[in-house]
Amino acid sequence: MPDLVDVVVIGAGAAGLSVAAISAGLGLKVVLIERAKMGGDCLNYGCVPSKAMLAAGHAAAQARGAYRFGVRVSEPEIDWAGVRAHVQGAIARIAPNDSVARFRGMGIDVIEASAHFIAPDEVEAGTRRIRFRRCVIAAGSAAIIPPIPGLGEVLYLTNETLFDLEEAPEHLAIIGGGPIGLEMAQAHVRLGCKVSVIEAAAGIASREDPELVAALRDVLVREDVAFHEGVKVDRVARDGAGVTIMLGDGGRVTASHLLLATGRAPRLAALDLVAGQVEASPRGITTDAGLRSVSNRRVFACGDIADPAGIGPRAFTHVASQHAGVLARRMIFKLPAKVDYAALPRVTYTDPEIAQIGLTEAEARAAGHTELAILRWPLVENDRAVAEGIEGGLIKLVATKKGVLLGASILAPGAGEMAGTYGLMIGRKLKLSALAGVVLPYPTLAEMGKRAAGDFYTPKLLSPAVKRVVGWLKYV
Hints:
By secondary structure, the protein is α/β, with parallel strands linked by helices. Helix content is 32%, strand content 25%. The longest helix is centred in the N-terminal third of the chain and has 19 residues, at 47-65. The chain starts with a strand and ends with a helix.
């Protein structure tokens, strides 16, 4: 007879670990199934190693730019083995938080095997069959392998293999100019590699505000990243130990290594969703806004693999945490709960970073907001930026005519660290007066937002009517 449990969680990435921990903490009998590494993509192949490598590149860039402050140092020597040790060390330091031992210590039954449905209320993992009252699919996503002719004949990298390179790439060609492609382009060019980025769309970072992207592109071009934008890859071919990429415009790029960064797709194939009566599409598990399967009420989905209410998946670790909170209320406590992406932040961790919270100007107009207040403040007008020699950044606020914030776009060092303020404002539907009136420490880059918000009220403050009132008040 199969075991009967309260909750079975398939996938031990950020989403699955959070759901399993919450469920077990509330006294439920939980089985957690993971076929690969605990911690999933974020810990092992994504957020953690990529940010560790970016940190190494940032250190090299700081050394090269120190002369601007009157500090003379020689060209930094890149020790690739040391860079790898730093990257793997970051993973190793965090790994115990996500380990099998820790979760078994919570009373969770961890099964290290692949899982698939054998019935609407039953899964099989290795030699075990488990019946469940509730199942949470949190199997995550994997790098898309595009159907490029010749790709099967060449060696290529994805985020799962990039950080295993024992030697630095001489020339890294990256297909894809989204967040992963741009982050890895800057990290590698700063670590002494030649880098080319190929993007089929009209421009890199196509989801982000064009004003900010233009400034970021200028930075990356100055750092010698080569861009091929608005051009498709016709085919690829082996070239000795490397690869030649033939482009749709007749050009070609010959590189030592090829990285695919063309997006991600949900891991659906191994789950046998038909047996579980779980509806899905290429976008992921089809759920309602509360992350419950539309076809099997026992089943929920969260993280990259969830496609809630046609909104579409969001492949961010912080979304996985948001989903876990929704499931705690909806699945465990039976309370109304649904995902809400109105204040969702996303960050591309280049230097400077691009952070987007809520809607861009284009997204706001597409959503039907025809009368908008657009407020900008350049980093060059920020005292902290001047003191640190930072140039080229910008904050752009998108608000209604009544001053309710809809979105914030930030290009600046540490933009992601500023995102929480704007997420709180959008989530609570706060007006710009809340930001304009806040007291911030001086000097900080965060003052950009306060100054931009203040500009919303300046025309009213300096209006003739207000001046007449002030003229009268001087006699009182």
